[in-house]
Amino acid sequence: MLERCRRDQWSVRDVDLSKTPRTMSAEDEIAICQLFTDMAVIERLAGALFREQARRTDDATLRAIFETFVVDEVRHAQMAQMLADHYDRRRLRVYRASPALSRFFDHFVTAVTELDDDVANTYITAGELILDIALLRSINDYVADDASAQAMRLINRDESRHIAIDYHMVGYYASPAWTAKLASRPKKRARDHARSAWTFAGMLYYGQPFFRDVFFAPMERIDPAGTRLREAFKRLQLLGAKPATMNTWFGAFMRTLELGYNDPVVRRVLGPAIGRVVGVGDFLRHLYTEEEGKRATEMSYGELAEEALGVKEGRSAFD
After folding, report:
1. pLDDT in tens, 280-312
2. What is the end-to-end Cα distance of the chain in Å, rounded?
3. Which pick of 110, 190, 201, 221 has the fewest CB atoms within 10 Å?
4. 243 domain residue, yes or no
5. Are 161 and 8 in contact (CB under 8 A)?
6. 148 lies in some domain
7. How many domains does the structure of the chain reveal?
8. What are the two backbone dihedrals, phi and then psi, of residue 299, each rounded to the nearest 5 degrees?
9. Burial of 189 (0-12, 13-18, 19+ CB in 10 A)
10. C-alpha–C-alpha distance, residues 239 and 304, integer Å
11. What would the 3-class secondary structure string for 103-125 be?
């Protein structure tokens, strides 16, 4: 994987921005420029996490992989901003990151540095699955332009590597090795637990409007049927269905909320509250069949990653 990370590096100069984009309505131009403006910030969020993961790991190879991911995300952010500028033909407005994204940014970065590794990894895995399976593909279809197609092909190639490692890390955090490592750490003091709880609450509170404004609302425009979003959340649910995933407190917490939301009695009473806490609303409804869930429990994390990556192109991402 490290060799592949180093081999597949590219430059924003590899994307040809010399051609005039197709003619768009004012409404489409605004939507596309805002999407790429937000995407630039989202990529920097991912870079912040990978930088922290590189700092925390004791494995030299994994550290080197994460460091290449930081480089990837900085490049993605630059590319997204360049695309936002490229499609801003009529200068219809000044584009800034969505307010919900700006508010979430600081809380997420704080959570990355203060909470257990598995919490941040869960969020980045969710974010990259939504980005890779749903948002990037839908943006590309909606823009329907050569420059976007070139950039998305290169970014998607990077994201495939990221997701493969995200799944690997989910498996590690669910393993006895991680449990033993946590047990060997000094016990937290009461005020440390209180600080972590406050940080976690802040991330959950600002996470819901972030998902709503930056992912869900744009997807209603560029993928009205919601097919790709449901597929992304289905992959997340199948990942969470593996019993080992519940070995971490956060995995157990999220799985408990998901199961509660899918119980008709619990959902009737607590459904809105659970949807608000998790931040994804009705996407908590089970999107997989009983047979698919059973199959997922028997698959390795690597097999689940490969299957998730294959969804976006109808083949294995590692072919």
Report:
1. 888 888 999 999 999 999 999 999 999 998 886
2. 14
3. 190
4. yes
5. yes
6. yes
7. 1
8. -90, 155
9. exposed
10. 7
11. HHHHHHHHHHHHCCHHHHHHHHH
Burial status of residue 308 (CB atoms within 10 A of its CB: 0-12, 13-18, 19 or more): buried
- Rounded Cα–Cα distance for residues 190 and 199 (Å): 14
- Choose among 118, 102, 84: nearest CA to 45: 102
Model confidence, pTM? 0.87
Domain that holds residue 103: 2-12+24-175+189-311
CATH number at residue 45: 1.10.620
C-alpha–C-alpha distance, residues 187 and 195, integer Å: 14
Look at residue 182 and tell me if it is in a domain: no
pLDDT one-digit tens code per residue, 233-274: 999 999 988 888 877 777 888 888 888 999 999 999 888 888
pLDDT band for position 313 (cuts 50, 70, 90): low
Determine how many CB atoms are found less than 10 A away from the CB of residue 272. 11
Assigned token pair, 158: 């990077």
- pLDDT beyond 90 at 84: yes
d(CA 18, CA 86): 9
